[in-house]
Amino acid sequence: MSSLLFSPLEMRGLTLPNRIVVSPMCQYSAREGCATDWHLQHIAQYAYAGVGLFISEAAAVTPEGRITQECLGLYNDESEAALRHVIDFSRIHGTAPLGIQLAHAGRKASSHAPFHGRGPRAEGDRAWQTVAASAIPFDDHWPVPKALDDEGLARVKQAFVDGAIRSDRIGFDMIELHAAHGYLLATFLSPLGNRRNDQYGGDAIANRARFPLEVFDAVRSVWPKDKPLGVRVSAVDWIDGGMTIEDTVAFSAMLKDRGCDYVVASSGAMSPLQQIPVKPGYQVPFASAIRKATGMKTMAVGMITEPRQAVEVLQDGHADMVALARGFLYNPRWAWHAAHELGDPRPYMPVQYDRGHPDRMGEISIKSKSA
User: Fold this and answer.
1) What is the DSSP letter of 32?
2) Listed range (98-102, 241-245, 279-283, 367-371) with the worst mean pLDDT
């Protein structure tokens, strides 16, 4: 029998062959924003991994929007050409729909990659001026970002639009806007990052959501109508005075009214003081709350590691898709193994690897022995 995990899902003109998603994962391996051979092998391996959807790592819409010097970008002809080469190659050899996450790191930009020590770059070390909703640093030892004025807001919005246009030219099937994890759009949404006294700030989520919604509307207006557009949110900040699930449900309802196709319910990363009770499936209730309150499609993330655990998330109505990140880093063949464990009869391995299927190993041995 085929499990719900391996059932198709339609979003606009795109049909996902199953509900397994490879979540965006920063690789810190780009050169001046351009994809490299590392991205070629990284993305291609998931394109033929039997997943329902692969979403590429956050691609910054401006050079200053990169988290690190080594982060991927999509803001000029060079970065577009480099990423197009990777996607064209992956299309030839893979079957999975391919999405891209468009992002701006905001006040958490100009930092070091994890394997280079993390933290902000020092002045004189190729650091750059960061921007945010308000002039509030991420932590005490981080630089103070510049609060975006009207001109800056317009510039960022246009950068997201340009990124969407480039994404369509490359041939991506869908876009996910990054409004989570303390990056630029998240600083508008969270009271911890937004102390503005204009129309984009204040106690009301409707005001704090105004700029992220303007970005969404601008992208939706240029993104093809038959291609899905989703948003990643930090459902809660895990700290008093931060984003609440009620805020996120309200924001999700606003997105749905504007034609958003799904919400990814992540959490945290707005403040280093957060207290997160990490355990298997710890973020699933957020996707569930959004889905039940709004009727919107949701993607569940957060320590979903086992096939039967993923099936339960879907069967219990918590989400429409499940996304893995580190689980796929450790086991790029997760979808193949899940299909075998759940007894799904559909083909999910490329023909070149078919002999590696556990059900066919004995058959190959017998043929070899009699040859």
Assistant:
1) T
2) 367-371
Measured between its terminal Cα atoms, the distance across the chain in Å is: 35
Looking at per-residue confidence, does 264 or 354 come out higher?
Answer: 264
217, HSE (Cβ side, Cα atoms, 13 Å):
9
Name 54's Cβ contacts closer than 8 Å, sequence gap at least 6. Answer: 21, 22, 43, 46, 47, 96, 97, 98, 99
List the catalytic residue out of 183, 200, 262, 348: 183
The radius of gyration of the chain's CA atoms, rounded to the nearest angstrom, is 21
Residue found under tokens 């043929």: 367
Assigned CATH for 4-370:
3.20.20.70
- Read off the pLDDT of residues 248-281 as tens digits, 9 standing for 90 and up: 999 999 999 999 999 999 999 999 999 999 999 9
Residue 268 has φ and ψ, to the nearest 5°, of 75, -170
Residues 6+ apart with CB under 8 A from 33: 60, 63, 66, 71, 72, 73, 74, 75, 76, 78, 79
Q: What is the pTM of this model?
A: 0.95
- Domain boundaries, given as residue ranges, for the chain: 4-370
Report residue 137's pLDDT band, with 50, 70 and 90 as the boundaries. very high
Using a 10 angstrom Cβ sphere, with 0-12 exposed, 13-18 middle and 19 or more buried, the burial of residue 197 is exposed
β-pair partners for 68? 111
Percent of the chain exceeding pLDDT 70 equals 96
Tokens 């996910």 sit on residue: 176
By residue count, the chain amounts to 371
Active site residue 330: no
24-48 pLDDT tens trace: 999 999 999 999 999 999 999 999 9
d(CA 193, CA 191): 5
* Whole-angstrom distance, CA of residue 74 vs CA of residue 70: 13
HSE-CB for 161 with a 13 A CA cutoff: 13
Residue 119 near residue 141, CB atoms below 8 Å: yes
